[in-house]
Amino acid sequence: MSAPVPPVFDIAARRPHRADARRNFDALLVAARDAFAQNGAQASLEDIARQANVGIGTLYRNFPTREDLLEAVYVGEIEELCVAARELADEPAGEAFVAWLDRFATYVARKLALQQAINKDSETFRACKHAMHGAARPLFERAQASGELRADVSLDDTLRMVSGIVASVYADDAQRKRVLGVVLDGLRASAV
Using one digit for the tens of pLDDT, what is the confidence trace for 83-118? Predict the structure, then answer.
């Protein structure tokens, strides 16, 4: 197993020290994640501030540009995936990877709203991708070594396939989960 992957971008380092300011910062990130998922990258910053119960000045003090807020939301999502991988490390191999992959699928669904706003050539994007792959790789390799996942697929193959499938439009969440289940069945070693 490889060493734990450190956070890509320490959002905690940007969080204010005062308790009330920290609450505002965190509320802005939660409100922004929801707003971007629902309305895309062009969601109203005023609505985000209102949803977080803060003034627009507080939003701009913490995130001077829309891109700063988008990046913080994106990086926060990646850090959550990395933490999830560490938390699942002691679970049974196949179950751990499937649980992480389900979280990844949820992340992809939320990321679709930010897709156009994310600069895929940026150092932050590359660092996030590297961190996410680094965190998931031990789970993937353990599942392969235990014989629960096919040996002829790579982590990158799997993440690309799940990303493409999750990006489709579904009638409801149940259909998305059903389709993802079919994919997981195809990844199982017994499917070969």
Answer: 999 999 999 999 999 999 989 988 887 777 676 677
Task: Give the range of the structural domain holding residue 55, as residue numbers without chain letter.
Answer: 12-64
Same domain, 36 and 58: yes
Amino acid at 117: A
Q: Which pair of tokens denotes residue 188?
A: 């199982």
Q: Using CA atoms in the order 61, 67, 68, 71, what is the torsion angle rounded to 10 degrees?
A: 150
State pLDDT tens for residues 159-169.
Answer: 999 988 888 88
CATH assignment at residue 95: 1.10.357.10
Whose structure tokens read 């392969």?
Answer: 144
Which two tokens mark 5?
Answer: 């992957």
pLDDT tens-digit series, residues 34-47: 999 888 888 999 99
* pTM (predicted TM-score): 0.81
DSSP per residue over the chain, as a string? -PPPPPPSS-HHHHS-SSHHHHHHHHHHHHHHHHHHHHH-TT--HHHHHHHTTS-HHHHHHH-SSHHHHHHHHHHHHHHHHHHHHHHTTTS-HHHHHHHHHHHHHHHHHHHGGGGGGS-TTSHHHHHHHHHHHHHHHHHHHHHHHTTSB-TT--HHHHHHHHHHHHTS--SSHHHHHHHHHHHHHHHBGGG-
